[in-house]
Amino acid sequence: MAWYVPPTLNNSLKTVEWMWQSNPNPFSESEPATWRHYSDLENLIIEEAFQNKQPQAQLDDYFIDFNRNLQISNTDDYKRGPIKRVERKREGKHLRGARFTDLPVSYERLFGGEYGWVAPFVIEVRRDLKLEPDDLPSKKPNTIPMLVEKAARGIIEEGKHIRKEREAEKMAKMLRETKNSGMEEVWKCCAYLYTLDSFLYKTLNAAMRLIGDKEQDKVWRSKIRTLGPFCLLLWDDPFNTKLTTKKTLYRGATLTNEQIAAYEKMAEDDKAFGSFQAYTSCSRNPVVAEFFSGNVLFIMEVVMAFIADLSPLSSYSDEEEELVTPGVCFRVKSVKFDCTKNKHLIHLQLRQRFSRQHKHDLPNQQTTNQTPDAYDRDDDRTTRRARAAADRTLDARRTLTLTGRYLDRDGNWKEK
């Protein structure tokens, strides 16, 4: 899978960064200049305008004057400062620590519950869009333009809420340019947008991590209409259709003593499982995760889970980013303190599970007398037994080879 190049840009974007001088008095000659990076979306907007030889680039809070190499406030003409364009080798691009260090589950609810093979957010999005289980865009290409348009409009609406309308419009434009190109191109664009350091992945994941917190139920459900279509397009990955096995991923974090103790307690019970209800960025490279980690390094052994390698699509390929999809469960294998690293090493085992142990913890937003839909189906006895075996087996990989079949993203058995 080749690196994704947005149609409106060229390969120079991967090696170009725009920066602005952040000194209190940016025009002072008596103090050394301090330079800060523009965000990924701001870089995209500025670089496109520069490549098109436009005199200005319009950002949400500032505009860029290329003739004078200045950024100038949209509301105060006196707030201005120098900018510069830096070309660098690919490996010289700065890495982003926050992407691999925030806690991958809600602070209020340390361990997400088990709600089944498919994450509740994804199911509720499909319900909201009135899609049947077989109506995924990868299976029904005629739904792609509609879903792309809904995703684009939702991104713009969310951007307006936080005064990031220019950035939102840029992402929406990039996504709309793929709507007639097939699911593979749409997914690559969605994955690329996810790799950008923007409000999109932060807002989506912040909402999804609230699943299971009854007091926050309305909050995460409020994002189903706006960010749900994008979430579904990213989830319906046409490249990684089979479960990943035998892989180790890493992620850093800064945890309190109470949070570490909760992981230690969970490690004592080999039947205790939590789950990642949001998309979770990890790195294949322990050095990357450890460099940015606080007092904890998560070491994640992938037993069987849907994982997407985003590094070929990312402008930050040195991060070696891999994405754990929503709904993946984990159990804590061990918690140890490494004196040489001065960190707690928390070993997790990741696997998809059919268990719906906490499904009824989710407040029911449907009417009480509503007929159960296709997402509440009660599988036949043979399927239930096979799924129970998949949940129970100590060597889950063995389950994948039974009768020459494999489990798809919806937890259905498919012929190889």
Automatic annotation (TrEMBL):
Instruction: Tell me the keywords, alphabetical order.
Output: Glycosyltransferase, NAD, NADP, Nucleotidyltransferase, Transferase
Q: Where is the signal peptide?
A: none
Tell me which InterPro entries the record gives. ART, WWE_dom, WWE_dom_sf
Q: Does the keyword NADP apply?
A: yes
Pinpoint the WWE domain residues. 4-85
Q: Which reaction does it catalyse?
A: L-arginyl-[protein] + NAD(+) = N(omega)-(ADP-D-ribosyl)-L-arginyl-[protein] + nicotinamide + H(+)
Family named by the database record: Belongs to the Arg-specific ADP-ribosyltransferase family.
UniProt name for this protein: NAD(P)(+)--arginine ADP-ribosyltransferase
Source organism of the structure: Rotaria sordida
